[in-house]
Structures are given as structure tokens and as C-alpha cells.
Amino acid sequence: MEQLDKIDTRILRILQKDAKKTTKEIATMLNLTISPIYERIRRLESMGFIKQYVAILDKKLINRSVTTICQVSMRYHNEAFIEKFEQEIQNLEEVQECYHMAGQVDFLLKINVGSLDEYHDFVKYKLSKIDNIGVLNSTFVLKEIKHTSEFYI
What we know:
The protein folds into two domains: 41 residues, Arc Repressor Mutant, subunit A (Orthogonal Bundle), CATH 1.10.10; 75 residues, Lrp/AsnC effector binding domain/regulation of amino acid metabolism (RAM) domain (Alpha-Beta Plaits), CATH 3.30.70.920. The protein is built from five helices and four strands, in the order αααβαββαβ. By secondary structure, it is an alpha+beta fold. It has a four-stranded antiparallel beta sheet with strand order 2-3-1-4.
């Protein structure tokens, strides 16, 4: 895999902070011309460094202000049960993130809903319907201290 140089990393940092920056704006920030910046961005995209461009929404304004971290432990750990759980989680729109873990907990879910009542219904009517869940442990975020989508590079 090709190494990133200082200009590439600076471009990636800029785009992580604001993906709406134009090629012209980035070129100005880096004291370069537009054409090489454009080519570098396209190369970074084609190499997979830039996976996608997204809009980060305000969860309060879209009524998803209750964030829950849910730890899921499975009863059985064979491949079929794990794959089935992973497939079913993909269909739950309330789940923003899901991680398969090593240690005491099998999966860690980040769930955003509008209220505790919504979370209750989510667990009762959706999450608990997935086969092979042994233990669910839910913790609720009181205050978000740091939230970023940026990687330090």
C-alpha cells in the first residue's frame, strides 16, 4: 500500500473536519493549485482512505437524544448464531454502531432513540426477538463529553 505524504495527511485532516470544503478552498489552505489537490483527493478515494462523505446530524433535532450503550452476551458461541445475530442487527435502524468484542461481553451496541419508552419498546419488540441472546446490559449516556468522527493521522 502506498504511503501518505504530508500533503495527503493534511488533505485528510481538512476533509475530516469539513467534507464540504471545495478543492479550491483546500488548495488555498495548502498554498497549492487546484489540479493536484483534485487528483490527490481522487487518488485517496480510489485507494480507500476516504470511504464516504456524510452529514452528521444533530441528534436532539431529529429526536434521537437518548444514547444507550448495550452489552450483549450470547448463550451459545457457534459461528451460525454469531452470523445470524450480526445479520439481524444490520436491520435495526436504532443501532448506530455494533462491535463484536473479545472478553466478557460478546457485542457492544450504540443505540439512539427519542425516549426511555422508545428504548423499552426497542428491547421488547426488536432486540429481544433475536435468538440466542443470553444477557442484555444497558447503560444510558448522561452527558456526551467527546464525540468525533475524526481519526488522528
